[in-house]
Write a structure and sequence with these properties.
The chain is an alpha+beta fold. It folds into three domains: 105 residues, Beta Barrel (OB fold (Dihydrolipoamide Acetyltransferase, E2P)), CATH 2.40.50.100; 72 residues, E3-binding domain (Dihydrolipoamide Transferase), CATH 4.10.320; 228 residues, Chloramphenicol Acetyltransferase. The protein contains twelve helices and 18 strands. The strands form four sheets. Strands 9, 12, 13, 14, 15, 16, 17 and 18 form an eight-stranded mixed sheet that branches. A hairpin with a 2-residue loop joins strand 17 and strand 18. The relative contact order is 0.11.
Length: 412
């Protein structure tokens, strides 16, 4: 019996996917539920499992865009398992299938003239096509190093040559063209849409992280021993954002046509870096979580993102986003809104800077914050007040985030 395997729907509103990688070769014997391919949707990378055991025939190539419901491979369920080591066969089949492509990519560039003609040129002299290009560029042949047979200057050498401007010539000027994944193309579309379709504005502030540093220094070891998770900065920032969203609900809103939708819950999107690019999983109902709960959820989502296991559902929704560019060394940036949300908070690196405290110059760990917001529904007063509320909570976390009881808040 021949089974047609069709592309399943990875989520609502997704109509096509892209074959990112086949994990098996044409003619392999596959087991039921074995991962046979990785497919990219515009939101995540998913594995495609075999629906039955049998011999597989591939009907799509890597890089092909296929619609949901289209046939991508056939499985002959009546075929028996081949004798011998199947894994070796699969590996050999893949090597055979990819060998011609590899040879094509690594083959050195050579002139298309017959060998006999090539030998008539002196070492280092240009071919006719190369000579014409060099004359147009006004570059002497002696200034170009040939890569052709016997050191002859090829057409490619001439095209890559640049006129001397006080620096060496003949350096490498190659380029590599790589097809963008469906996920990256969708991210690009959404970022451009956010810039074009929202009245985006960014306001900045700075926060003295001394109080949080002191809390983490005093309690991080006990916190980790008790909860098996580190006491990081994300729980403090998430708590501070939730407090500010509750004080200024317009920031926890979004536009839907002619309506403004305001949420009474806080689904906080956190930007994390994954193997396929930026992922934005969501901490659901973060307002109900403790410091321990937030840190545990951040850790879980970060691991799933790094291992490529994030699902579409885990990235769908969200009412506000927190992005931490500081982990990569960013001092200041203007984060782009994650539509249809109306606000995003950018965290940055923490640097010791001179500040004035009680009329005296002191050194303190300072972080710059940036709030980008949609000015269509969030006024300047609300945006600035929101960011000030975040600053207040971070500079006095015991009072604003822990109700004056640190050990109770950290569940120690």
């Amino acid at each position: 019996m021949i089974l047609e395997m069709k592309v399943p729907s990875p989520g609502e509103s997704i109509t096509e996917v892209e074959i990112a990688q086949w994990l098996v070769a044409d003619g392999d014997y596959v087991e039921k539920d074995q991962a046979i391919a990785e497919v990219d949707s515009d939101k995540a990378t998913l594995e495609l499992p075999a629906e039955e055991s049998g011999i597989i025939t591939l009907k799509a190539e890597e890089g092909d865009a296929v619609g949901v419901g289209e046939v991508v491979c056939l499985i002959d369920t009546s075929a028996s398992r081949p004798a011998g080591d199947d894994k070796v066969k699969s590996s050999a089949a893949k090597e055979t299938a990819t060998a011609p492509t590899s040879e094509k990519k690594t083959a050195p560039a050579t002139d298309t003239k017959p060998t006999e003609t090539a030998k008539t040129y002196a070492s280092g002299s240009p071919s006719p096509a190369a000579r014409k290009i060099l004359e147009e560029k006004e570059i002497a042949a002696s200034a170009v190093k040939g890569t052709g047979r016997d050191g002859r200057i090829t057409k490619e050498d001439a095209m890559n040559a640049v006129p001397s401007m006080g620096s060496p010539t003949g350096g490498k000027r190659g380029e590599t063209r790589t097809k963008l994944s469906m996920l990256r193309r969708k991210v690009a579309e959404r970022l451009v849409a956010a810039k074009n379709e929202t009245a985006m504005l960014t306001t900045f502030n700075e926060v003295d992280m001394s109080a949080i540093f002191e809390l983490r220094s005093s309690y991080k070891e006990t916190f980790k021993e008790k909860h098996d998770v580190s006491l990081g900065f994300m729980s403090f920032f998430t708590k501070a954002v939730i407090r500010a969203l509750q004080l200024f609900p317009a920031v926890n809103s979004m536009i839907d046509g002619k309506d403004m939708i305001t949420y009474d819950f806080c689904d906080i999107s956190i930007a994390v870096s994954g193997p396929k690019g930026l992922m934005v999983p969501i901490i659901r109902n973060a307002e109900n979580l403790t410091f321990r709960g937030i840190e545990a959820e951040v850790k879980r989502l970060a691991i799933r993102a790094r291992e490529g296991q994030i699902t579409v559902d885990e990235m769908t929704g969200g009412t506000f986003t927190i992005s931490n560019g500081g982990v990569f060394g960013s001092m200041l940036s203007t984060p782009i809104i994650n539509p249809p949300q109306s606000g995003i908070l950018g965290m940055h690196n923490i640097v010791e800077r001179p500040v004035v405290k009680d009329g005296v110059v002191a050194i303190a760990p300072i972080m710059y914050l940036a709030l980008s917001y949609d000015h269509r529904i969030i006024d300047g007063k609300e945006s600035v007040s929101f960011l000030v509320a975040v600053k207040e909570a971070l500079e006095n976390p015991v009072e604003h985030l822990m109700d004056g009881n640190v050990e109770k808040a950290l569940e120690l």
